Amino acid sequence: MPKIHLTTLIHAPAEIVFNLSRSITLHEKSMAQTNEKAIAGVTTGLIQKDETVTWRAKHLYKTRELQTKIPEMQLYTFFTDEMVQGDFKSMKHHHYFKPIKNGTIMIDEFYFESPYGILGRLVNHFFLTRYMKSLLEQRNAIIKEYAETQKWKTVLQHAETIE
User: 0.85 cut: is pTM over it?
Assistant: First the structure.
């Protein structure tokens, strides 16, 4: 099973980074190139523990849907989202937030498994891992941009931030 590990230094408090990371609005902004939209479950605000969201986006020349759930969350420290239904055989994304003196270290551990046995493993190796890593890096760049500027207020100002 492929694993993507990313570490991003963000010069902002962990609370802001944590909340931006679970913002439906910011996720849609960060995935604008795929026209990703929340279409069911939580479709606005901040996703909470035990809630689901269904995303629709165009990836690899096809419109796809992915439903994820947040089975684990510890406020401002970590949360996990995992696939309930979608094109992967399995998908799990752990998000960690470590406060440091000058901001937050955000760590992503993204695991996925493609269907189709050996063919799926070849696609993972030669293409899909790089594609997924690029999407995560793009998402993290948007989180960083919003967290390090006053833009975060446009996303979190009216969002419920308590677990």
Answer: yes
pLDDT averaged per 10 residues, the chain (length 163):
94 97 95 93 95 92 92 97 92 97 97 81 78 95 96 81 49
Q: Are 124 and 26 within 8 A, CB to CB? A: no
Tokens of 125: 């190796």
Closest by alpha carbon to 143, among 155, 128, 161? Answer: 155
In the DSSP assignment, the letter for residue 134 is: H
157: three-class secondary structure by DSSP: coil
Other beta carbons within 10 Å of 144: 20
- State residue 157's pLDDT score: 78
Could you say which DSSP state residue 70 is in? Answer: E
For the chain, what's the residue count?
163
Rounded Cα distance, 104 and 154, in Å: 20
Strands of 75-124 (E only): list them. Answer: 78-85, 90-100, 103-113
Buried b / exposed e over 8-44, threshold 16 CB at 10 Å, is bebebbbebbbbbbbbbbbbbbbbeebebebeebbee
Residues 6+ apart with CB under 8 A from 150: none
